[in-house]
Amino acid sequence: MIKERLGKGLNTIIMVLVSLLLLLPMIWMISTSFKKAKDVFTYPIQWIPLDPVLTNHIKVWTAGDGFALFYLNSLKISVFLMIGAPLLAALAAYGFSRIEFKGRNTIFLLYLCLMMIPQQVLFVPKFIMFEWMHIYNTHWALILPGLFTVFGVFMIRQFFMSIPHEISEAAFIDGAGHFRIFIQLFLPLSKPVLATFAIIDFTWTWNDYENALIFLLDKKLYTVPLGMQNFMLEAGVDYNLMMAAATAGVVPLLIVFFLGQKYIIQGFSSSAVKG
């Protein structure tokens, strides 16, 4: 019993130390965002600024184009995909897990192979397609491709495969169709995995730099990653301003994570029950 307690205590101490080590860059970023320029590289490091200021954060939102427009653009795209992508992925996952049709497993395997294709390879075909659809240099160029994710279909399908077939068979006997079973049975049961994927998709979309850089030209359409890059070019070597901008960019991710963290472990564990 004593050895077991000592082992758990040692594991806890190690995990706390590793967590603090991983958090040090973020702590330094937040700390620097409240410092004056002359205090950024003082040694030893001032983890808690002796003379904290709010001017850095104020300037981020007011100087130049500001971050308000970039935030609204990113929120619009990220929230739209956070809702739409899990729903479409759940529909596809239901088809691959519960609807019997010829070649289902083969098609699903080929579908999974798309995960091995680098996204950079698709930039030229996407550009040609978006030009033809007249959505280049619009937010639709980011929203439409983002609605379809191979990882989301795979993740949710794995969860659906863990649901006993007796549940859907009983619903069929009662006269329910596939759509009703999906809406009234599978969606309520899959809240953890849907919430987990929604958080992951929000993070992907919020941090998406390459697609925004290639498919958005108008500065009024910029998302937060492009806005941060633009701000850093303007700020030059003002690291305190750059860290204030980076802190502002991280806040929505932290809020979404803390609101949905209870679903993440449950969603991953349940989606891995059955392959």
Automatic annotation (TrEMBL):
InterPro entries: MetI-like, MetI-like_sf. Residues 71-260 form the ABC transmembrane type-1 domain. This is ABC transporter permease subunit. PROSITE patterns: ABC_TM1 (PS50928). It is found in: Cell membrane. The chain crosses the membrane at residues 12-31, 77-96, 108-128, 140-160, 181-200, 241-260. Belongs to the binding-protein-dependent transport system permease family. It comes from Paenibacillus phytorum. Keywords: Cell membrane, Membrane, Transmembrane, Transmembrane helix, Transport. It is a multi-pass membrane protein. CDD domains: TM_PBP2.
